[in-house]
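Field reference: sequence -> structure
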Amino acid sequence: MGLTAAAAMAAETAAGRNYRQKVEPILSKYCFDCHGNGIGKGRVTLDEFASDEEIVAKRDLWLAALKNVRAGLMPPREEDLAPPTPAEIETLAHWIKYDAFGIDPQNPDPGHVTTRRLNRIEYRNTIRDLMGYDFNSEVEFPPDDSGNGFDNNGDVLTVSPLLLEKYLAAAEFIVDHAVPKVGRMIRERMASGKDFRGEGGTGENLNARRAAKVSRTFFIDQAEKYQVVIELETRGSFDFDPSHCKVIARIDDDETFTEDVVWSERHTLKREFEVDWSAGSHVVSFEVVPLEPVDAPPKSAPAAGAGPVARQGMRIPPAPAPASAGSPAREAGPRGQFGFRPSTSVNVRIASVQVRGPLNPKFWIVPDNYARFFPRAEAPATVAERDAYAEELLRKFATRAFRRPVEESKLKQLVALARQVYGEPGRSFEEGISRAMMAVLGSPRFLFRVEAVEPPAAGQRFAALDECALASRLSYFLWSTMPDEELAGLAARGELRRQLRPQVERMLKDPKAQAFVRNFTGQWLQARDVEFVPINARVVMGPNAARNKDGRIEFDSAFRKAMRSETEMYFDYVLREDRSVLELVDSDYTFLNERLATHYGVPEVAGEQLRLVKLPADSPRGGVITQGTVLAVTSNPTRTSPVKRGLFILENILGTPPPPPPPDVPDLEEAKKEFKDREPKLSEMLAVHRANKLCSSCHERMDPLGLALENFNALGAWRETDARQPIDPAGALITGEKFADIRELKRVLTHERKLDVYRCLTEKLMIYALGRGLEYYDTHAIDDIVDRLNAAEGRMSVLLMGVVESAAFQKQRTAPAAAQSVSLLRASRPN
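Structure field:
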């Protein structure tokens, strides 16, 4: 007996002792009625732990308990039992964080971030800043997966064989278009069809039936020889058209060539001319002269002289089938004259006119973008000097591309690759450097955000990121792109960590911070989706709704973009003015233009530009949940969805999402059967739906929040009725707070539930900044930021700096992380 007791005492841990002394009495008082004494509601019991080790091993259980108690979801509100006191909640939270989770507040676990590739937006922005070229990766690459609500999550940013091929092709394409391949080149002036104007329209679309003459003037500052390259495109309609014309091209009134044009499939004609021009103005013009229409040749080979012969590769099509008996072969009347039909045509387009010169090499110019990649006017002549220059250029380029100093072994590979090209007869030095740059853009070091740490001390579990990795984290967090010269310079000198605050302030003032605003709001508030969400405006707004400038009731692109811009400008204002984050939920202002203000019913707003607007005193607007963006993306195509809207608030404002719905839940439309004599309101249908025990627990949380927004239709316009019956937006949170309408609900969220709002936004921002989901060991960091936010009345700068200064942002585990994705790329291409 004594031995057993001694063994039990020896097995007792500090966490277990604190649990029995401090936590178990609280659980017994509030939780054991449902989760103890033989009752395991929801398959959760809190009094059947076999050992102290089992108590602290159930981290998921304690994390859920902490979230539910803080949010007021547990214990359920009962009239005869007061909720836990703040002191009791703090006792429970302290034990969970520092005993059950084992968090060391002086040295918290920063967690593990999977080595992640650049997502599509980050890739595009990084290429823009590195190469000076806008490569549309959002079109060229497949969509990125999302994890924990964001598309920069390392655990889901995988690399498929298809994406790998696209990366390699993109590297070649970008370098070909961004990097000059020669040191000097002939100057080129280019004009397209729309630049040619005159009698009969522009050169973009010249019709063979109408006479026209269009021209364009080129200004030359050097008397020399020039080359004029003309490219025309002719195309006929799908069905044969008998139109026939002559196109006359002239340079300074001298006829250079004439072309007969008849119906054909699309055909391109290219002509080159060398001209001796004096300094001054020179005119290139084109004249269309309509000719007699042609007959379609018979199906068999035509006899000699039996109609026009195709020139310059333009083919005459087969004849159409003979007209049926009793009907004319050609249409009569003005529209049918010569057999023309309104739906057929023959057109000529001036694809381009290029003036190249002077052709004399002494007047050649340095290519655009040359100085960006090649600071010297020309490459050295000797092999040794070229190699040294190549090493200088590629060291700088690779260091910028890899976001850290390039290794010497890698640099030697790049120089050797460049030398292999520029050492060939007839190949330029610039071509060799371009080939090495392609290898850099295809390297895992560019495509992935590889992070290193400062050398850890012996036995040290967590180490600070080195300053290059910190610079990358900061720039991709706030700019979605690579560090700029100032950030990279501070990191190289080891001074960035000491200057974090001024650097964050500088970065937020930079226009590149719009990427943070757009990408974070686009995913947290689903603002991206408003540009694509299907809403039937005619059904939602009704036949008497306001119409756009074309007279249509339409949720068009301009309207969608205005809604998204309102949300982005609103968040940007809170960010740059360092206002309280609670204003994201409730405020007396928003950003509107005339069309959006009319839609919202806000008076005295004119013009197309969105601007800051002070809302009327009794306005239900103000805050993101009453903006058209959120209201539209949380609606169905033809009606509102209180369930989606309630779920949105739970997930993105309060941070307390319900569990997934159980299988075989009846559709909401099934509730209509209970109303045989009339069309029910959505609130009535939801009341019937909630009566089902399978649905009640979640819908009791979601529905009151969503129904508070029922006065806003699926496009966010205000309404007073639903199904011709008055709307009643009153309700209560599951935590007991009552509200009469959306105005009062927003006040509840920003006062009684403000800590939930702080915590939810902190968690969302941490997920976005870290590129991973949150775990139990992040609880201390989140709580620390929430406490600082609360003390500072919610100022946005406190939230941002709290994230940037957190151990999770600044440190990393010292254990080597798996790099399977990097290995895939490394195996596919020399790195």
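Note: Residues 580 and 793 are 6 Å apart (CA to CA).
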